[in-house]
Predict the 3D structure of the following.
Amino acid sequence: LGRGRREPSACGADRRLRPADALRHGALGNQERAGYDALQIGLAFLPVTIVMGTLSLRYSEKLIQRFGARTMQFPGLGLMIAGMMLFAQTPVDGSYLRDVLPALLLTGTGVGLCFPALMGLAMSGATPSDAGLASGLVNTAAQVGGALGLAVLATVSTSRSNHLAYAGTAHARALTSGYHLAFLIAAGLIAAAIVVAAVVVQPEKRAAAARARASELAYERC
């Protein structure tokens, strides 16, 4: 499929390594620390779904048309970092409205801005015959990144919590510290995604010129 598909796929795997898995960690944290049941967790995370869906369906296309898909990645990723950093500051006795909801809204806004742009970049250079393969590659990279991210963050968080618990730290504080570390790692990986997006994803005009040159070379060879 060439470099054009590898770059967005790499960003997709890198991006999915963090927000979705960090949100899963947030759900586990609410369940373990606050005693939420499954229904309460679902309702607590409903705002992030609403924000992501609203942005993706109503506003992302207009923003991408105005500013370009490559440009729209950066504010989205930046908002995800802000959300992860807020999660990493959640106190042991924090409240949902004050400490969790703002982080959820920031993360949901970031994903809603970034993911449509990322998918657009991944599919922009695909020919009709390659469209299905390109879409499958991007989604596979995202799923693999998500699975890997969940394993990494869960392992790091659990290891940190267990270490503190063995040292005599109170259970709730040890558990919270483990989640904080996972969120900080998530923020760092999103920052790495920004670097990848800035370095390897070409601006739209440059990418279009490269595709035009490739088409000309292919025509000359024929």
Remarks:
- The chain has nine helices and no strands.
